[in-house]
Amino acid sequence: MAMQIVSALFVENFQMRQAPGPSTRIDLTGAFFSMAATEPAPTTVTPHLVALIYCPPGEPGNGVFEVVVRRGIDPDSEQVARNVSPFQVEPGKFTYRLVRAEIEFPDYGQVIAHCRVDRGPWHLVPLTLLPPTSES
Question: Per the structure, how many domains does the chain have?
């Protein structure tokens, strides 16, 4: 079994802390799938995407995390951002990858973050940009 993405989310805040054991706790706050623009379109947003990745025992623990932000679900949809980062994780444990993408929105609508480890299956995370509100 290869490394697996356990979860991938857009978040407002991400913190790690120690807990008894010793074990680690990950505090994710403000997970979201949509956001109001701070200014009228066209605009650029820079959300944080956090991915939690598990490495099964017996695996080498070296991998590459890839995120391709596209304007649709299909793998041939227009690409608007891309990030590739190598990582290491101890077999039998978890790691995380934090990606801050710059995403240009010519108009309000949805993009999809296509995430994967190595050449594994894609994990899709949608993000919808909404018009500004009086509170944004």
Answer: 1
